[in-house]
Amino acid sequence: MSTTAKVLSLPGSAMVVLIGVAGSGKSTFAYEHFRATEVLSSDFFRGMVSDDESDQDASADAFALLHLALEKRLRRAKLCVVDATNLRALHRSRLLECAQACSRPAVAMVFETPLAVSVERAAQRVGRVVKADIVREQAQTLAPQSDADLLAEGFVRVFRINPSEEVEIRRTRAAAHG
């Protein structure tokens, strides 16, 4: 039985913000659907500044670099995929300000991976284990956020990503509209 892929249309110069708990599949999705140069990963930048992607003490410096790279790419009208948990509006606000300052549309992709799957994946990570209670706390933070909330923050489009669906990304030249 063949399945039809869910088609997501993205403006080619958009900022795409991945939102989801640890272990929800954000990084895997990002590297399967986007060029490596388009993915701005908080883990990568932690590794860049500290030689350890799991070093949470390096997060401030890592995000400073991530935001700088985001700004430079958006100014060049390059697609940017921000790969971090991005669970709180406060953390997303800086990203949205950057997209707005560069006149680029912001698209949210919310990962709706079952909690048990995310907990299992997070526990099996090599070198970056995230404890089950942390993943559960993250899920509680994410759960009450609706598409309407995200649109009110400034996203022009919200996509819900279900790990059981096949997804195809199509790039467009036009701005995204709800």
Provide a quick synopsis of the model.
This protein is of the alpha/beta class and 178 residues long. It is built from seven helices and seven strands; from the N terminus they run ββαβααβαβαααββ.
Which helices and strands occur, and which strands form pairs?
Elements: E1 6-11, E2 15-19, H1 26-33, E3 39-41, H2 42-50, H3 59-75, E4 80-83, H4 89-101, E5 106-111, H5 115-124, H6 132-142, H7 147-153, E6 157-161, E7 167-172
Parallel strand pairs: 1-7, 2-4, 2-5, 3-4, 5-6
Strand composition percent: 15-25%
Shape: globular
Taking the sheet with the most strands, its summary is: 5 strands, parallel
- Summing up helix and strand content along with how strands pair, one would put the structural category as alpha/beta
Describe this structure in words.
The chain is of the alpha/beta class and 178 residues long. The chain has a single domain, classed as P-loop containing nucleotide triphosphate hydrolases (Rossmann fold, 3-Layer(aba) Sandwich). Helix content is 42%, strand content 20%. It has seven helices and seven strands, in the order ββαβααβαβαααββ. The chain has helices at residues 26-33, 42-50, 59-75, 89-101, 115-124, 132-142, 147-153; strands spanning 6-11, 15-19, 39-41, 80-83, 106-111, 157-161, 167-172. Strands 3-4-2-5-6 form a five-stranded parallel beta sheet, sandwiched between helices. It has a two-stranded parallel sheet with strand order 1-7. The longest helix has 17 residues, at 59-75. The protein starts with 5 loop residues before the first strand and ends in a 6-residue tail after the last strand. The mean pLDDT is 92.
